[in-house]
Amino acid sequence: MKKNILVSLIKIFNKEPQFNEQSNAKIIYLKERDITGHYDQNLATFKSIFSIPKNTDVKIREFTIRALKRRAFILYIGTMVDSEKVQQSILRPLIENERPTGKIQDIISFPVEKTTTNIGDIINNITSGITALFIDGDRQCYIFETTQVQGRSIEKSDNEVIVRGAKESFNERLADNIGLIRKKIKNENLIVEGLVVTKRSRNDILLVYEKDLVNDELLQKIKDRIHMIDADSVIDLSILEQYLEERPRSLFPTILNTERPDRAVSFIEEGHIILLMSNSPNCLVLPATFWALFHSPEDHYLRTPYGNFIRILRFIALFISVFASSFYIAITNYHVGMIPPDLLMAFAGTRERVPFPSIIEILMMELAFELIREAGLRVPSPIGPTIGIVGALILGQAAVQANVISPIVIIVIALSGLSSFIISDVSMNFAIRISRFLFIFAAGFMGIYGLAALVVSGLFYLVSLKSFEVPYFAPMTPRFFSAKDLIIRHVPIKERFRPGYLKPKDMVKQRGDSN
Amino acid sequence: MQKTKIVCEILLIFILVSTLTGCWDREELEDRAYVIGIGLDRSKAKGKIKVTMLLANPEVGSMQGGGGSIEKPREIISFDANDFVTAKVTANAIISRKISYDLLKIMVASEDLARQPLFYNLINDAAYDKEIRMNVFLAVSEEKASKYFLKNRPKMETRPHKYFQYMIDHGIENGLIPDSTLFRFFKTTERGTDLFLTMNTTATRKKDTKMKGEDEYYAGQVNATGEFDDTQFIGSAVFKNGVMIGKLTGQETSIANTLDDTTNISDFLADIPNPFPGKRKSFAIRVMKREHNKVKMDLKGPRPKIFITLPLEFEFKSNPSMVDFSKKKNQAIIKKEIARHFKEQFEGLLKKTQKQYRGAPYPLSFDARKYFGTIQEYERFNWNKSFLKADIYVKPDVEIVDYGSLTKKAGN
Amino acid sequence: MMKQQPGKLGIREYVSITVLMVGSKASEDTPSLLSIQVQNAAWMIPILSAGLFFIPLFLLIKTISLFHEKDLFSVIEKLFGKYIGFFVCLVIFAISSFGISVDSRTYTNIIRAYYFNTTPVLVLYGLFMAVCAYGAKRGIRNVGSVSYLLIFYTLLSLFIALLLCTRESNIQAIMPIWGPGKWEVLKGSLKNLSLYADFFLLTMLVPYLRSSKEFRRGTWIAYIFTIILTSAATIVFVCMFDQSLGGIGYPFHSAIRYISLGSYIPNLEIIFFVIWIMGAFIRFTAFLYISALMFGHLFKIKDFEYLIPPLAAVYLLIGAIPETPIDVSLEWKSIVRMTAGPVFTAISLIIWLAALLKGEFKHAENKNSM
After folding, report:
1. Residues of chain A positioned with their CB less than 8 A from the CB of B56
2. Is the residue at A128 inside a domain?
3. Is C243 close to B186, i.e. CB distance below 8 A?
4. What InterPro entries does UniProt report for this protein, alphabetically (chain B) (predicted)?
5. How far is B262 from B257, CA to CA, in rounded Å?
């Protein structure tokens, strides 16, 4: 109730600005109409729609089909089609074929994609690289799949590096990405459903899921959420991610963003839904839990003991990177008795000539570390590694020698910084790096008590997070049936169930006795 | 937007508060002066005590490589105060940093003070200062504690905390000194039924000491020559109801420690008389305790009877008469000799403390408790009085685990 | 803003909340208060009290399970009518509120006495209540989840702490076995029925569990668990401190300050403290939620979760009244201790009697046979 008053108050003071926008009612009206049989009228319509000749790469070619003895024109965007193909398989047969026949399909060797009549539909097709053929007196438009967009080929995964397992990663071309998934799941139940998110730039996304696994309610929920997006343009999947998230301001991610097709496939097989988008070299996995973000595909490729070893290592790294510096602050500022006497003497001895309080010291070094890290990323690649070494060595060494920083702090920061790299997911990594600062402040404010208070509050917050109605820590708590692949994973033979929180149509992954 | 802004503002306030507050409990660790040892003496002023503080200098010995300082590793101050808790404030008139008892390792009381009836009351202040931990060791020095710290100049461990840590830990391990933490001191005194042994130390070397057995020394009597620190930790001071009443030698202390199941003395070396013919008069053996004592008591009669069985393991460290222990007969002889010797030792100590100090040197009263159903019955029995009349029988249960290398007779 | 779905509490989460709520009593001043009453037989009290409290609790749960997924207050109002029911509920609410204030103050006292000597009580207390209020506002399901995440570590650390304590203790300290005498021990356990009073309050959570069968199972599991926990902890403290136990305010904290892992890690109380304080947060979060639930039920407020912050503030103010820790421990706490146990026991029995007289049991039987 109180909140409502507050919101309305805020609304009074911050009114939505009004703009005088130009009406585009005419074009919308045009788009809903069908094409006519009149050659000239069609030509004029499309010339005006595509602003020819102002638009240089939209090509119109007028000619006569000899076999039919009719005038015709083809329309395509020169930069998006394979012009060799257009020339060889569409234009030449149409112009050169002399045998009288009534059907376009018989003349052209290029497969006809489909025929359509709606102007809006035709426009959509042309803008995505299709060649359209208009024939005088024909009320239909023939559409040929001639798209050829320039792009990267399939390369190695850069951001999610693993030692064992498939190396290929998604690229910017949607067809390639689908191919990468299809070749791993050879099943007719794999559905690739297309959706268009925005009206203006018509960014299309693909939902990939297995029909006989995915929970229909979940699928519908995701579709509804996508339809709720009311934006002119969403140019990248990572932006779409932010539109889809329940709490976009939250520190912690609730959607998994990966560039590895093998990872995507493993989620599809469990009943998750994958979102792909053209021009984005990654995919979204919905819904995602803490565990999905915490795990790495390598955990499963390695043999069970090794996989668990790196899991535990990562778990420890998580704790070190979050708590190392704040714990240092807490015990050196508040709970001195905790430190073994030798260490305490060493701390006190080295800190004696440092002019700053230890919390400032830690903050300075944390900031320096983040700077080095960010600079190392942005610096052109040939000098990248040098920056890291220069930054870490020179800065640390010099700071210690100048008595600005005590050497212990360097150790603490280096340890926590190093550990933070072990969390491979970019969003999770950020979440941990930022929350580290919060913990430092909490420890500086009230020592270990402040730290514990923040940890508990953080846990309350985390468990209340939801990704498409799936609790963040499911299936650990609240408990669901699952493969029990949480901190420790079992041998693959024992992983018998799909995660229960997805309510998949088929719960059991592998039947048979689990010996 | 609005929400993000509010969150940011709150965060900003939080950050400012957290970095700027220097009050409450926050204290940078280099702003403190760490007291390693406290010495307590009688003061000339009435109602006061003389407090000595041994402070460690963190700058010395903590730096690897360059940057070390020429400062002294320690600072010692003595002054009169009401008690050692408020002495912290007084000390700040001399010491530049805030006095902290966080690293306190040892409290040394002079024998003179320890024999005063108010001693327990004085030490009890430690329970109220949360900086003082209950695992601080209590020791009694023969000389004045202020002098003790001044005279104590370790040659190898110049850093005081390290010195006391090593000295005490190894002393307890060898059984030469008792494990006399404040915790045990308070517990024993509050129970009021047993004697409490406190480690005895001194930094003055006695001149006129006779040669004795392996460790039948009081502190200061170990006759060593060479270049070393004069401080010795050996033997113990006996406390009854929180007041010192006597002393035990190193050997007596290790016997008491062996009897005591609540300390974990690992093993110690001892001499036993050589029952075989030969020039050297004693065997060196390593004594280990297998498990807890088995104590049986007969508390019904006018003279209670106490039977203690000690499961002991022995390992030979020397064989002065070159005896062939593969022979059963020799084994039997040495076993019997060990049993006899230790029975004598244990019973001797218990009788001595029973007569002289009127109590058991370790929590023997615990073993009596199980013979009573309720506390009232136990109190009616009155352990303190009954123990004085008790007959104590000790039976070492000897098991020899290693006879050493089986030497053959020379010439064979 | 998405509205949080209330969600149901799983049995694991419920048991964890319960164990943390009741079991944490072993880590505050309860063992030493027990020791003042019955000296070295203190460890028997948790077992005997549990035995005595079993009867009313059993009857209460039996009665409540007659009414399909109704909480305690609904049942009381149904059985006693509107006015008497309201009054009874009000009494329960008042006692539990007072209990929360006093108990939370006890925790603040511990924090201040052992770890933050110079920080004002109000700051420590305020932070404590703020965290609890935040947690409680997230809903009982999330409280359950967090407690399930933490329970393992809490119990593990308690176990390790107790194990390390046994190195310093002497089992013979529990002799003479009957302490001050059998009759005294029995009297002591009657006086300490309030040890398990939390189970009475937890019946407010029945509708939040998936089924009343799960509630019953969870309650009994937690009941047995807490008996063992409290009793074992008390035994260890008795053996460790012997006759000094009564004089030590908070034995758990004194103990963790004493134990060590060799001479190189001499002090590890902070590790135990962190885990302990996390458990304490959970405990009062659950308490706060339950009492907001009661308040909402009493005054027919549907969105009772909005009541949590103001309630927390009120408890904070009440808890801040006593000036010194001794006031809290000896005066205020003994009031709660004296009233909560007998009153809750009496109410449980009366509820059962009322149900019996009104023929609810027969009614239910008929229903079943049909």
Report:
1. 345
2. yes
3. no
4. GerAC_N, Spore_GerAC-like, Spore_GerAC-like_C, Spore_GerAC_C_sf
5. 9
Task: Please state, in angstroms and as integers, the Cα–Cα distance from residue B359 to each residue in A162, B21, B366, B371, following that order.
Answer: 72, 55, 13, 19
- Percent of chain C topping pLDDT 90: 17
Q: Is A477 in contact with C149 (CB distance < 8 Å)? A: yes
Q: Looking at CA atoms only, how far is residue C285 from chain B in angstroms?
A: 23
CA–CA distance, B139 with B145 (Å, rounded to integer): 10
From A203, A195, A259, select the one nearest A226 (Cα to Cα). Answer: A195
Total-model pTM: 0.88
Confidence of residue C3 (pLDDT cuts 50, 70, 90): very low
Q: How far is B266 from chain A (nearest CA, A)?
A: 24
Whether residue A184 is found in the same domain as residue A111: no
C-alpha torsion angle, residues A197, A198, A201, A203 (rounded to 10): -10
Position A1 in a domain:
no
Instruction: Give the residue extent of every domain in chain B.
Output: 31-60+69-261, 266-412
Cβ within 8 Å of residue B387, ≥6 positions away: B304, B354, B359, B360, B364, B365
* Residue of chain C minimizing CA distance to A480: C10
Residue with tokens 């990562």: A314
Q: Identify the residue among B26, B54, B55, B74 best suited for mutation to test binding to A, counting A beta carbons within 10 A and taking the highest.
A: B26
DSSP 8-class letter at A513: -
- Confidence at residue C38, expressed as pLDDT on a 0 to 100 scale: 84
Range of the domain at A133: 25-144
Residues of chain A with C-beta less than 8 angstroms from the C-beta of B103 = 337, 341, 344
Q: Which of A110-119, B33-42, C342-351 has the lowest mean pLDDT?
A: A110-119
Question: Which pLDDT band, with edges at 50, 70 and 90, does C281 fall under?
Answer: very high
For chain C, the 3-state helix, strand and coil shares in percent, each to the nearest 5, are: 80, 0, 20
- The rounded radius of gyration (Å) of the Cα atoms in chain A is 30
Of B263, B331, B255, nearest to B287 by C-alpha is B255
Per-residue pLDDT tens digits for A1-35: 455 666 666 666 666 667 777 767 777 787 777 88
Percent of chain A residues topping a pLDDT of 70? 94
- The answer to whether residue A409 sits within a structural domain is yes
| Boundary residue ending a domain (A272, A288, A304) | A288
Q: Let me know whether A326 and A244 are in one domain.
A: no
Arch. (CATH architecture) of C12-369: Up-down Bundle (1.20)
- Architecture of the domain defined by B266-412: 2-Layer Sandwich (3.30)
**pLDDT, tens digit (0-9, with 9 covering 90-100), for C252-275:** 988 888 888 777 777 888 889 999
Q: For residue C260, which residues of chain B lie inside 8 Å, CB to CB?
A: 135
Task: For residue A121, give the nearest of A34, A2, A9 by alpha carbon.
Answer: A34
**Degrees (nearest 5) of the Cα angle B130, B133, B136?**
145
Structure tokens given for B49: 């005590």
| Neighboring chain B residues of A334 at a CB cutoff of 8 Å | 25-27
Per-residue DSSP letter, C329: I
Choose the closest CB to A441 out of B4, B15, B26. B15
- ipTM of predicted complex: 0.91
Whether A299 is covered by a domain: the verdict is no
- The whole-angstrom separation of Cα B24 and Cα B12 is 21
Residue B89 contacts C, CB cutoff 8 Å: no
Query: How close, in Å, is residue A10 to chain C by CA atoms?
Result: 16
Domain tally, chain A: 3
B135 at A interface, C-beta within 8 A: no
Predicted local confidence at residue A46, as pLDDT: 85
Residue C243 DSSP class: G
Give the nearest partner residue to C13 out of A453, A459, A477, using CB atoms. A477
Q: Quick check: C111 and A449 in contact, CB under 8 A?
A: yes
Q: Domain segments of chain C: what residues?
A: 12-369
In chain B, what residues touch A347 (CB-CB under 8 Å)?
Answer: 29-30, 58
